[in-house]
Amino acid sequence: MSKQFTYQDVAEHNTKNDMYVVVHDKIYDVTKFVDEHPGGEEVLLDVAGQDATEAFEDVGHSDEARETLAQLEIGALKRQEGDPVPNAGIPGAVSPQAQTGAATGLGVGLYAIIILGGALAYGAYQYMQQ
Ligand code: HEM
């Protein structure tokens, strides 16, 4: 089993010379990679010691980038209550927030509108036939 890190453990490695990031709940030591990153060191410094899932996915990194990432893996994230929830940024994937919140409400509301619209149309049709 891979080594487990808490979010706090990762947060301590937030400098250019000692940098961990979280991507999809895995921990990566990107210290040696910072200078080589084609996207520059600034963007990595922005997410140093944090969950970089969203930033990483938003850019649309290539498969090669994902392979590089895999080589830097040092462990997995042990989630604890109160940790920031990442937004994976994968098209089509529903984030935990979206599942519980407004999205579900809107879904039910839409069904209601469609059914109501159908009923009204049917009523109007019956009325015209009279
Ligand atoms: C955490 C590990 C990361 C790895 C291993 C990595 C790797 C790479 C690689 C290999 C490329 C070259 C293009 C490609 O193959 O897709 C690249 C480009 C890029 N990366 Fe990352 N990246 C990481 C994180 C990030 C983060 C957190 C950001 C934040 C926004 C970022 C922003 C960019 C940008 C903007 C480019 C495009 C550069 C250009 O084409 O001019 N990367 N990255």
Please give a structural write-up.
The structure is a single chain. The protein is an alpha+beta fold. The protein has two domains: 1-93, Cytochrome b5-like heme/steroid binding domain (Flavocytochrome B2, Chain A, domain 1); 94-130. Helix content is 46%, strand content 16%. The protein has six helices and five strands; from the N terminus they run βαβββαααβαα. The protein has helices at residues 7-11, 41-46, 53-59, 63-71, 96-100, 102-129; strands spanning 4-6, 14-15, 18-23, 26-29, 73-78. Strands 1-5-4-3-2 form a five-stranded mixed sheet. The longest helix has 28 residues, at 102-129. The chain starts with a strand and ends with a helix. The mean pLDDT is 85. Bound molecules: protoporphyrin IX containing FE. Residues 21, 23, 28, 30, 33, 37-39, 43-44, 47, 52, 55-56, 59, 61-62, 64-65, 68-69 line the site of protoporphyrin IX containing FE.
